[in-house]
């Protein structure tokens, strides 16, 4: 599912109620550091029959994986909430 971090877009590889692992679509100039707090958005495409549902998440970066063409980030959620507007646009 799509994920947004600052002005960068990524794609989840694994997601659960406890956290997420995602990779960036474009290699960021400065990826987050392990141990850093992070805010990101998820777009749940199948969470509501009326459309894409936005979720705002806060957590801690627990792992950063550097590959030749991308960067992967594992995040442990501290909290998350459904967007009051209830809808998200797909990146």
List the helices and strands and how they pair.
Elements: E1 2-5, E2 8-15, E3 19-24, E4 37-44, E5 53-66, E6 71-82
Antiparallel strand pairs: 1-2, 1-4, 2-3, 3-6, 4-5, 5-6
Concise structural overview:
With 91 residues, the chain is mainly beta. The protein contains no helices and six strands.
Explain the overall architecture.
The structure is a single chain. By secondary structure, the protein is an all-beta fold. The chain has one domain (2-82): Thrombin, subunit H, CATH 2.40.10. Helix content is 0%, strand content 57%. Strands 1-2-3-6-5-4 form a six-stranded antiparallel β-barrel. Strand 5 and strand 6 form a beta hairpin. The radius of gyration is 13 Å and the shape is globular.
Report mean pLDDT, rounded to a whole number. 86
CATH third-level topology:
Thrombin, subunit H
The CATH level-2 architecture is identified as Beta Barrel
Count of helical stretches: 0
- What is Rg? 13 Å
Strand elements, count: 6
What's the main sheet like?
6 strands, antiparallel, barrel
Distance between the termini: 10 Å
Number of domains: 1
> What overall geometry do the principal axes of the alpha carbons give?
globular
Percent helix among the residues? Answer: under 10%
Low-confidence stretches: 87-91
Any idea what the CATH superfamily is called?
predicted glycosyltransferase like domains
Q: Beta-sheet strand percentage? A: over 45%
N-to-C SSE string, H for helix and E for strand = EEEEEE
What is the topology, as strand order, of the major beta sheet? Answer: 1-2-3-6-5-4
What is the name of the CATH class? Mainly Beta
- Which structural category do the helix and sheet elements fall into? mainly beta
